[in-house]
């Protein structure tokens, strides 16, 4: 099991467009495996290659399907690796629900997405598939497909929520030592100076 560093908002790779995958080789499968491990370790339902610093059109996803509370219901886990996805059709019906992102730890905001989508994609072996998705699954795939085009969920937010999300992630980056604190700070702790 290998988990990869997840890039946090502010990292330029999240704003770059990923490249079409042409080689369906062992390296691609290994990357997808590491992305699965990374996604599970962080309790995500999806992760795009950009988020681990790789500009390939690849994402992994995994969600619980079925309803364990229903009689005879099971909590099966479904998921997979999706390569070179293309949105063929999206419904005019819109669904709004809270959304988060591993590149924005701890932040959740309501995002409007098409309720149903029709997507073409390839698997890790290069085989072509088409799938129709609805509701939460459509949301997960659209979120990850956005990543491959350098689009982030905050881009879909109303101005106020977007401003708040960006402020909170700036604070997070400083807390995590990813950025220096631009403001006045006591004791120079972030630079590790002695007192
Ligand atoms: Zn995301």
Structural class: alpha+beta
In N-to-C order, the SSE pattern is HEEEEEEEHH
Radius of gyration: 18 Å
In the sheet with the most strands, the strands line up as 1-2-3-6-7
Instruction: Report on the biggest sheet.
Output: 5 strands, antiparallel
Beta content: 25-35%
- Per DSSP, the total helix count is 3
Please give the share of residues in helix.
10-25%
Number of domains: 1
* CATH architectural type: Alpha-Beta Complex
Distance between the termini: 41 Å
Bound molecules: zinc ion
Please name the CATH topology.
Answer: Peptide Deformylase
Question: What is the residue-averaged pLDDT?
Answer: 91
Key structural traits:
195 residues, alpha+beta, Peptide Deformylase, two-stranded antiparallel ribbon, 3 helices, globular
């Amino acid at each position: 099991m290998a988990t990869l560093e997840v890039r946090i908002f502010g990292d330029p790779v999240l704003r770059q467009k990923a490249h079409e995958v042409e080689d369906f080789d062992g390296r691609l499968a290994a990357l997808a495996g590491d992305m699965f491990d990374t996604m599970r370790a962080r309790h995500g339902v999806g992760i795009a290659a950009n988020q681990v610093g790789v500009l390939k059109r690849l994402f992994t996803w995994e969600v619980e399907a079925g309803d364990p509370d229903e009689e005879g219901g099971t909590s099966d886990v479904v998921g997979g690796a999706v390569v070179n996805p293309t949105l063929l059709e999206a419904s005019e019906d819109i669904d709004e629900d809270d959304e988060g992102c591993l590149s924005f730890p701890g932040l959740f905001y309501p995002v409007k997405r098409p309720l149903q989508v029709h997507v073409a994609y390839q698997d890790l072996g290069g085989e072509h598939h088409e799938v129709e998705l609805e509701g939460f699954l459509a949301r997960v795939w659209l979120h990850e497909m956005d990543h491959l085009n350098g689009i982030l969920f905050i881009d879909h937010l109303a101005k106020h929520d977007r401003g708040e999300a960006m402020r909170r992630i700036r604070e997070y980056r400083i807390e995590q030592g990813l950025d220096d604190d631009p403001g006045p700070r006591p004791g120079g702790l972030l630079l590790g100076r002695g007192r």
